[in-house]
Amino acid sequence: MEDVTDIGFRMLCKRFGAAMVYTEFVSAEALVRDIKTTVRKLTICDEERPVGIQIYGRDVDAMVEAAKIVEQAGPDLIDLNFGCPVKKVAGKGAGAGMLQNIPKLLEITQKVVQAVKLPVTVKTRLGWNHEQLIITELAEQLQDCGIQALTIHGRTRSQMYTGEADWTLIGEVKKNPRIHIPIIGNGDITSLDEADAAFDRYGVDAVMIGRATFGAPWVFSHEQLTVDEKIDILEEQLRINVRRISENQKPGETEASAEKRGILHSRRHLAATPVFKGIPNFRQTRIQMLRAETMDDLLAILEQCRELLRSHDDVVTGHQIP
Q1: Which residues make beta-bridge pairs with 21?
Q2: Could you read off the pLDDT of 129-172 as tens digits, one per residue?
Q3: Are 198 and 167 a contacting pair, CB within 8 Å?
Q4: Which residues of the chain have pLDDT under 50?
Q5: Do the Cβ atoms of 245 and 254 come closer than 8 Å?
Q6: Which of 122, 146, 249, 282 sits a CA distance of 20 to 30 A from 68?
Q7: Are 186 and 204 in contact (CB under 8 A)?
Q8: How far, in Å, CA of 7 to CA of 268, rounded?
Q9: Catalytic site positions
């Protein structure tokens, strides 16, 4: 969820019913090297609790040291990411890349658990590929390391985000009588109805929603919002991000630069939101939205989008979605 779960977005997700939120995942090595852009990702606030901070890396010592640094930030738990499939992470042996080195994955987990007082959880996938579906055995091994919960994404690393998530093995892990920690299912959940179905069919303790939240923090709510209300929420998220970054400017940073950083935090949501899908010839408007450098300019574009949607009843009707 890099560049997605900033603090403004997390607070909106909580408002609409998310039981728990996570920060953007954080590079352990960057934390240890005190890279400022990475350290800033540790900022949390009481209004969003319970909140977890997720770290990733491939080096045992760096992961342990990073966990200690994260603990000082005061989250409710520390999550270890052994599931990210992207090349720049998994290709270097971190994230889902750890599924090719189970002994080291378990060593990292055990040593982090021993190094901190906070609960430690893990997020991972079914295995590296369909010839290595190891999650059933791995879940028991991770539990033995002392983790407090396990999130399973129903794909292998080789699938990336293609095809459909397979929840069958998630259900098998949950039904294993030797498993006593909470099992959280993840993959292809885009609505509360789908989440309810996953609870009923697979018996998981919780359901994690990822990509379906992009530009749609209201996905956690049964409330049927109008398009106007959704645009209001997107504008509020923009204002929250700009305000919080402006209040915590870097030394020597201008207000214009801080405002631009706040806008950058919101761009991915605006590009991904389902609200604007279906607007005729929207590509050029999206480009303008992604190039806007002031909040006033971006708000003006959002208002133009609002008028476009109002003028196309067929589009508006098609977007009464959670």
Answers
A1: 51
A2: 999 999 999 999 999 999 999 999 999 999 999 999 999 999 99
A3: yes
A4: 314-322
A5: no
A6: 249
A7: no
A8: 14
A9: 84
Q: Nearest-CA neighbor of 107 among 68, 70, 61? A: 61
Six token digits for residue 226: 């109008």
How many CA atoms within 13 Å lie on the side-chain side of 276?
Answer: 25
> Can you read off the two tokens belonging to residue 294?
């002031």
How would you class 223 by CB atoms within 10 Å of its CB: exposed for 0-12, middle for 13-18, buried for 19 or more? Answer: exposed
Closest CA to 7 of 197, 261, 232: 261
Contact at 8 Å (CB) between 280 and 320? no
Nearest CA among 20, 21, 17 for reference residue 5: 21
| pLDDT (0 to 100) of residue 248 | 67
| Two structure tokens written together for 7 | 């603090």
Asked if residues 297 and 263 have their Cβ atoms less than 8 Å apart, the reply is no
Give 280-284 contacts, CB < 8 A, sequence gap 24+.
Answer: 280/312, 282/308
**Partners of 53 in beta bridges:** 78
